[in-house]
Each structure stands twice: as structure tokens, then as C-alpha cells.
Amino acid sequence: MTRAMLISLIAATVLADQLTKAAALSLLSQGTVVPVFPSFNLSLGFNEGASFGLMGGVMAGRPLLMAALTAALTLIFTLMAFRARHPLERAGFALVVGGALGNILDRLRQGAVTDFLDVYWRDWHWPTFNGADIAITLGAAFVLAASLPIRRRKEPVLDQR
């Protein structure tokens, strides 16, 4: 994966995330649940904390601090993306960076991250999430997959008698 491809993947991830969030903001109102499939709804929400609402109470009302912390981590992941040698690892870091940048833009623009994807089973609901969260999760899976050892065919042992 070339640098241009890496930058394009980051940009495409941010664009897709921001477009889907803009659609959610214009089509959904907070508190409204729109059933899509069994176990999947659209439901607008806002997250002031980290992933899955963690640290929401601590970070409530501090979007710039949360954006700064996320930006610092994003810079580290950006450097790792450009240094990665394995294409799957590079793609993974690009997805993480693109997703993080999408969420940073939300924090800077509106003080919280827009979430609208609601997956549930019976009365249990996974924390509402967005396209950036999908990109970050998929990117992390790619990085992990790239780190797995590749099984090589064992070379025949030469008889040294």
C-alpha cells in the first residue's frame, strides 16, 4: 500500500463517517428509535466520553480535552501507519486514524460524538455507535491479523549422514 493509498483510505474513512453522521443528524431526532432489522435500530445519541461512553462523566463538558487526548493518540497511530510494512497493518492503522479523526471532528464541531447505530438482543443493547467506531474496530482487527505469524511450509530436512 503506497502513501497515496494510505492517505486516500484515511480520507475516505473520514468522509464516509461524516456523511453518515450528517444523514443521521438530519433524519433522526434524539430519543426516536427507527427499527431497521430485527436486533438493529437507528437511534440518535451523543457521546461525550471515550468508546462506549467510558469516562463520560469525567469528560462531560470538556470536549476540547477529549479531542486533544484523542488527537495525541491519533498522531501516534498515524506515525505507525506510515511506518508499517505489512499492507494489512497499514490499512488497519489507516482505518483507526480515519475513524478517530471523524470522532475528533464531531467533538470540535458539537462537543460530543454522534452515535446512531443501535444493536440489541431482547432487552440488552450494545452501546450506540457510528461508522467511525466500525472503522476503528475493523482497523484494530486488521492490525491484529497482520501480527499473527504466517505458517510457512516446513522445508525438508536434509539428511547429513
Polypeptide structure, described:
Helix 3 runs antiparallel to helix 4 and helix 4 runs antiparallel to helix 5. The protein has one domain. It is built from five helices and four strands, in the order αββαααββα. The longest helix is centred in the N-terminal third of the chain and has 25 residues. A hairpin with a 2-residue loop joins strand 1 and strand 2. By secondary structure, it is an alpha+beta fold.
Question: What keywords describe this structure?
Answer:
5 helices; disordered C terminus; 161 residues; alpha+beta; 4-stranded antiparallel β-sheet; globular
Task: Please outline the helices and strands.
Layout: H1 3-27, E1 33-37, E2 40-47, H2 56-59, H3 63-83, H4 87-110, E3 113-121, E4 124-125, H5 131-147
Order of helices and strands: HEEHHHEEH
Number of domains: 1
How many beta-strand runs? Answer: 4
Main β-sheet description = 4 strands, antiparallel
* Beta-strand percentage range: 5-15%
In the predicted model, the low-confidence regions spanning at least 5 consecutive residues are: 151-155, 157-161
Total of DSSP H or I helical runs spanning 4+ residues: 5
**Major sheet: arrangement of strands:** 1-2-3-4
Q: What's the shape? A: globular
Radius of gyration: 19 Å
Estimate the helix proportion, in percent: 55-70%
Secondary-structure-based class equals alpha+beta
Q: In summary, what is this structure?
A:
The chain is of the alpha+beta class and 161 residues long. It has five helices and four strands; from the N terminus they run H-E-E-H-H-H-E-E-H. It has one domain.
